[in-house]
Amino acid sequence: MPIIVNLDLILAERKMKSKELAEIIGITTANLSILKSGKAKAVRFSTLEAICKALDCQPADILEYVEG
Fold first, then answer.
1. What is the pLDDT of residues 31-53, one digit of tens each?
2. I want to staple 32 with a disulfide (CB 3.0 to 4.6 A). Which of 4, 22, 39, 60 is the partner?
3. The whole model's pTM is what?
């Protein structure tokens, strides 16, 4: 898939656990895991906004387009 999810990298940089982020943004750890693995078919803008706010980052820090 040409869209890469770098959420694990940002979480590591912020020294935050997935469970903590899930609680802050109000989604289940299972749904966050699906997003982190790149298996999600879509991401709500409200979820992306909440992630960026919680991690103090930009959407481009989390999502990356790679050809091929």
1. 999 999 999 999 999 999 999 99
2. 22
3. 0.90
